[in-house]
Amino acid sequence: MFLTKLSVLATLLALASAQFSPNYKDGRNGMVHLFEWKWDDIAAECENFLGPYGFAGLQVSPVNENAVIGGRPWWERYQPISYKLTTRSGNEQQFASMVKRCNAVGVRTYVDVVFNHMSANGNSRGTAGSQADPGSKSFPAVPFSTLDFNPTCSITNYNDPKNIRNCELVGLRDLNQGNSWVRDKIVDFLNHLVDLGVAGFRVDAAKHMWPADLAVIYGRVKNLNTAHGFNAGAKPYIFQEVIDLGGEAISKSEYTGLGAVTEFRHSDSIGKVFRGKDQLRYLVNWGTAWGFAASDRSLVFVDNHDNQRGHGAGGADVLTYKVPKQYKMASAFMLAHPFGTPRVMSSFAFSDTDQGPPTSDGSNIASPRFNSDMSCNNGWVCEHRWRQIYNMVGFRNAAANAQLQNWWDNGKNQIAFSRGNRAFVAFNNDGYDLSSSLQTGLPAGTYCDVISGSKSGSSCTGKSVVVGSDGRANISIRQNEQDGVLAIHVNAKL
Asked: Each residue of 413-425: pLDDT tens digit?
């Protein structure tokens, strides 16, 4: 019996083995999490900004009906009432239109899916008007009944995998993914999203579900919809929320055979480095040597919607928009380095960690407004619209598959490297100026530094860098400059 179970799991893992590609359009790389944006606003953002500036994809907040909670905290989106596609972000028709419009301009959509649990006791009214009784585990709009849930218990012991996976996370009613009816409803939900043209899923709370159950579910999800421009046979890209900083009973390695994982060690480590707790020179072996999962199994990020609020993992070392210079440097490094599949965070401003998105009336989400420099206002931060970040998405696209070469450091907190002969970046996190002749790997010519400015015709709105016939250039980053980064690439040649 044991051997049979192992062979079945091996087969299911093989079925899921194609789910490591993000299904990006050729020439594009990098996604952004448009946290709590409305579907109509995202569609316009794809057409007006994400598409033109080379973004490859976007992650959206949960799309299915959630509990309506007093004060409208952001986390109500993680308390499902049903799998109807109606939330404060919009209805199913608006979501379907958004996905279609974004695909049309080369920007793929990844849905944050929540199927570990349903809503907690007391949260019974949904955004689509459905009613539930979490106290008796009754969710008729699915429908789920008490037969579909694990016995009531609380997660109290993170050294016990059974407690973590079979009990309730902060009172949320814990679904039994080993139940065939539960699997059917989850698969129907995911397949409906595939039909609508999504490219993949972020699986919320994956650590709290058994890998063997997830293997069955993933193995039953349809191939991507070719009507939306995906290749025949392409599988959804799956990245699973598995918080693993080491020392716990559950390891991300239990999930990397099924899909990518959200690599929290990347967020924790990059925060420590650019806060000055580790030296930049140590980044020379950035990647699996730091304890990360393999590159194609790692969804990497500087911060996410949880840990920027102190939840999840990383604590005070996590960098957020509230420390902009270090945040831009860390984001630039993530986008310049070839490791992993990077995701940029796009936030709304908050002072209270429960605070929901900006609203027009206390309930309906307000649309972002844009300044003359393309940055956001009206309560939205929009890090993806910061020049130092969107221009580094262009840098990553220009670098393509070129390998990391020409590493240089000063033995402390000044580093530089090239991506083959296509792109070059330098960082200064020391308390004094960087001024050195460095090998850029680039062809001779004059290049626009895409951190301090942008290429505009044959000129640059920021600093220019002259590369000689030997590939070397005089690189200068003063310690008191607004940005501690300089970046040039072949598409920014003047």
From this structure: 999 999 999 999 9
> Are 50 and 102 a contacting pair, CB within 8 Å?
yes
Q: Which contacts qualify for 85-89: CB closer than 8 Å, 24 or more apart?
A: 85/192, 86/127, 86/128, 87/61, 87/62, 87/63, 87/127, 88/36, 88/38, 88/127, 88/357, 88/363, 88/364, 88/365, 89/36, 89/37, 89/38, 89/39, 89/60, 89/61, 89/63, 89/365
- Segment 96-122 shows an average pLDDT of 98
**Residues 35-55, mean pLDDT to the nearest whole number:** 98
Is the torsion defined by CA of 99, 103, 105, 107 positive or negative? Answer: positive
- Give the whole-angstrom CA distance, residue 319 versus residue 16: 33
What pLDDT sits at residue 104?
98
Does residue 204 have an active-site annotation? yes
Cis status, amide bond into 143, omega within 30 of 0? yes
Q: Do domains 2-262+348-381 and 404-492 have the same CATH topology?
A: no
Dihedrals φ, ψ of 273, to 5°?
-65, -50
Q: Is 53 helix (H, G, I), strand (E, B) or coil?
A: coil
Q: Which of 45, 112, 168, 204 is catalytic?
A: 204
Under DSSP, is residue 165 helix (H, G, I), strand (E, B) or coil?
A: helix
pTM for this one?
0.95
How far apart CA 161 and CA 106 sit, in angstroms, is 41
Of the candidate CATH numbers 2.60.40.1180, 3.50.70.10, 1.20.140.10, 3.10.50.30, the domain formed by 404-492 belongs to 2.60.40.1180
Of 174, 241, 263, 449, which is the active-site residue? 241
Q: Where are the domains of the chain?
A: 2-262+348-381, 404-492
> pLDDT at residue 301 above 50?
yes
Is-catalytic flag, 45? no
22 neighbors 341 (Cβ within 8 angstroms): yes
Which pLDDT does position 237 carry in this prediction? Answer: 98
CA atoms within 13 A on the CB side of 445: 18
Q: What is the CATH number of domain 2-262+348-381?
A: 3.20.20.80
CB atoms within 10 A of CB 135: 11
Report the alpha-carbon distance of residue 23 to residue 108 in Å, rounded: 8
